[in-house]
Amino acid sequence: MLSSSADFQPTPIHLTIGHEHIDIESLDEAIDFLRSLRHDRLGGFAEMLLLQMEAAKAPHQKSEAWTAFRTWSTACGLHGGKGPLSRAA
Is 22 left (phi over 0), alpha (psi -120 to 50) or beta? Predict the structure, then answer.
């Protein structure tokens, strides 16, 4: 569980896109990942999420942005590479 303390420590997320495995261990890495999808169809589903994540400054905002990223990546089927969009990137 994420805490709202000053030391925001996200639990790493392991994504699979096609045959590629990506470990996302920080909010900055998640932001970079979403930016890399700007010209991909997955990027179209992440514009508002990217804005939220880039704007997160306070620990509670970072925690909420991380939770939103986890939810988005799960909804896109990026966990385990079995979802309908797992080969999109």
Answer: beta
pTM of this structure: 0.78
Which phi and psi (to 5°) does residue 55 adopt?
-85, -15
37 contacts 89 by C-beta, under 8 angstroms: yes
Q: Whole-angstrom Cα distance, residue 27 to residue 49?
A: 12
In this prediction, what percent of the chain has a pLDDT beyond 70? 82
Q: Which residues pair with 15 in a beta bridge?
A: 22
Task: For residue 8, give the nearest of 50, 74, 51, 69 by alpha carbon.
Answer: 69
Angle of helix 47-55 relative to helix 27-36, nearest 10 degrees, comes to 150
CB 30 within 8 A of CB 53: yes
Among 14, 78, 23, CA closest to 45: 78
